[in-house]
Amino acid sequence: MNFGPGPSVVLNVGGTRYSFSREVLKDFPLRRVSRLHGCLSEQDVLEVCDDYDRERNEYFFDRHSEAFGFIMLYVRHGHLRFVPHMCELSFYNEMIYWGLEGSHLDYCCQRRLDDRMSETCTYYAAEEPNGGPEGKGRRPPGAEGRKWLERMRRTFEEPTSSVAAQVLATVSILFVIVSMVVLCASTLPEWRAPENRSVEEQSRYTAESVREPSGIIEAICIGWFTAECIVRFIVSKNKCEFVRRPLNIIDLLAITPYYISVLMTVFTGENSQLQRAGVTLRVLRMMRIFWVIKLARHFIGLQTLGLTLKRCYREMVMLLVFICVAMAIFSALSQLLENGLDLGTKNKDYASIPAACWWVIISMTTVGYGDMCPITVPGRILGGICVVSGIVLLALPITFIYHSFVQCYHELKFRSARYSRSLSAEFLN
Q: 286 and 175: one domain?
């Protein structure tokens, strides 16, 4: 920063003045303040603050002075807490303005913020480089020509972005529901083909199944899903990233089996290997159950579950390690106590350690089918210890997974609220 006299600068936030040296601004913990060090002109400064006095080298910020005072306490002492008698969301808005996030808050205040956000669907986003009135006039060349492509992308990717997106999402959900109803109904005895058909009859039945009402409905649903997937692929920005996305992979797994089954039916014909192909066809048709996961594209709950599993894979691996270690210990001990010792009566259900692993996992998860149970007194004592240990081990990582679930839910809810605001603006226009 090569303008303004004096070796220090003054920040005036809501009437309260703070003096700093230029070198302190370079590595200042608040991102908005540290940006002043890289400003080369007054125009750059006015993009960061509200006003600037060159003579006194003073920067004016029209923000909440008391909230900034608590933020300065965080800069000095490393603890950030809410201002008493101030709305949590308003203080969070001040935090985002200065470049802080919810993770900088102390744990007690984080819980208050989570509860407050759960009650209100409010979205706070960091300022974009080209956002606001100043950035609207500096669009890159060709931005107007790509506007319709971005609108199409949002229509297919964000169900709450516009009226057309909501209609499209509703139609897609209806197709998923219809396809699931047809899949469930096709397993009823009245709908299934008799098992005692000959090879020729089975071939004729397989070839003509697509002409039945259920086959026609299935073909229509597949046609809709295929067209939707193709259009979303065409309007996507990055084709490679589009293919790698989990929801798109699920769409591909739900669509591909139908075309494979049709090709197998066409090429198999009345071949003698049709019976073997028939089993494969039934497996491929049953893979249509993946269509249910397509609902994750339109429901925040399923998206939250997937995002939580993605972010908590370390905790999930830790949980599996806990279970595997406990299974190894308790299965070996139960096999020894129930079958390994010569006590006159041996429990044949615990003849081996792999067989005992089934009893351990059922006991640790407190399911208790009752198909296997210890009969000796030491075995029953071990069973009680196994149940209690399972409750403790399964409960340990749950806290981390719960907090991650809450955070993911808020993020997706805020993104949905952002597009809902754009939908409201569309209605007003």
A: yes
